[in-house]
Structures are given as structure tokens and as C-alpha cells.
Amino acid sequence: MQRSTNLLADAQRTVAETEEIGIGTVQNLHGQREQLLAAQATVKETSSLTQDAAKTLNGMARRAAHNRMFLYSIIVLLLFFIGLMLWDIFKK
Asked: Coil, helix or strand for 92?
């Protein structure tokens, strides 16, 4: 009888230990889930910021190309007028 009581007490201790381990594991998993959700939110925010930055850079590239074309047009116009002035000088 004593042996059965000891076995039952050991089994109850084992169950209690297993329950504690299970509770600890569930709490650990909950913490990891929270970390993953926070990381997911950070990734979404970073993705959004990256898309905004890409739009800004594309706009800047368009403006730079526009400014470059305008500058080339001014250079061609100035060269044309310089050529016209030289032609007028050598014509006389």
C-alpha cells in the first residue's frame, strides 16, 4: 500500500512538473508571438517608407532629367547665337 501511495505521489509530482513546464512553454510562445507581431509591424512600416523613398527618388530623377534637358537646350541656343555672331563678324 505504501508503495502505491509513493508511486501515486511521484506521478502527481511528475504531472505538476509537466504542467509547470507546459505553462512556461505557453508563456514563452506567447512572448515569441508578440515579438513576431512587432517585427511584422516594423517590416510593414519599413516597406512603406521604402516605397515612399522610391517615389521621391523617382520624382527627383525626373526633375533632374528635365533640368538637364533644359540646360542642354540653353547650351545649344547659346552656341547658335555665338555662331551667328561669329558669322556676322566674319561676313563683314
From this structure: coil
